[in-house]
Amino acid sequence: MTGAITTVRTVKDLRAHLATWRKSGETVALVPTMGALHEGHLSLVALAGTKADRVVVSIFVNPIQFGPREDFKTYPRDEAGDLVKLIKAGTHLVYAPDMAGIYPKGFTTHVRVGDLTEDLCGSARPNHFEGVATVVTKLLLQCAPDLAVFGEKDYQQLLVIKRLVRDLDLQVEIVGGEIVREGDGLALSSRNGYLSPAERKVAPLLYHTIHEVAAALAQGAGADTASEAGRFKLEAAGFRVDYVAVRDPETLARLSGPVKQARVLAAVHLGKTRLIDNVPVPLPASTNR
Ligand code: PAF
Fold first, then answer.
1. Ligand 1: which of 60, 132, 165 to mutate, judged by most atoms within 8 Å of the beta carbon?
2. Are residues 161 and 215 in the same domain?
3. Do residues 155 and 228 both lie within one domain?
4. Claim to verify: residue 197 and residue 58 sit in the same structural domain
5. 34 C-alpha vs ligand 1 centroid, how far in Å?
6. Domain boundary residue among 177, 200, 222?
7. What are the C-alpha distances in Å from 95 to residues 10, 55, 153, 175?
8. Residues enclosing ligand 1, CB less than 6 A?
9. The CATH number of the domain where 115 resides is what?
10. pLDDT digits over 160-184, tens only?
11. What's the pTM value of the predicted model, to 2 decimals?
12. For a FRET experiment, which of 48, 74, 152, 213 has its CA 20 to 30 Å from that of 282?
């Protein structure tokens, strides 16, 4: 127990808590996280709280979604700080399993979602989505929530999770939570802390560029022309660009020519930090300047 929040570390303890709530007819929302929580995560917790009686937040840094040269070892971890934030955000239970609680000795079962994972972040990070799909399937089976909330910042991830839930008939509603941004537009991310002060100044250009791409599309520009212009702008500013893409918002299918409804997605490297972001087309009225 920490303050007013209970942390459980085994699926047995998790299920014991859930059983008490279920007995009294309460609904449960799960917010899966890898910790290092920021306002973006807390907005997902708040959203979960509007949709269910009880909110469970899981904290687990999932090794199998990181590539061999990625930042698993250095990924920020601050469980004590996270718990303080979660108490304020109205979380009822924290599930922080150890490695064996998710991947017991001899674990060999993996979940692979097809087409949706084949490009964009799937090309840049082979096996990433298999790692995400596997751990999310486990967390959903362990917790059996009525709904689970994931951020739209990881837009491709959100679609992958919706697809696996549909394909495997998991009985859970997947809800997407809006991206939370700094005042200058930079999407909140646990990895923003890797940026040097100089990189942090340049980083918001990612959002401003995809916003411009979306605005150009809304004015009738073709998808290829608009995304190429975005890539050019980012490269000129010193970003190493994985992709700037205009895709169908449901299937992530490639689009070309003028589009009515789309998602503009981008992934870039700034120094040693990989940043991703996305915006809808049409842009929401509040950002449609
Ligand atoms: O988005 C994340 O933080 C992770 O990919 C998730 C969904 C918690 C799975 O490890």
1. 132
2. no
3. no
4. no
5. 6
6. 177
7. 8, 11, 23, 19
8. 32-34, 62, 65, 132, 135-136, 150, 154, 157
9. 3.40.50.620
10. 999 999 999 999 999 999 999 999 9
11. 0.97
12. 48
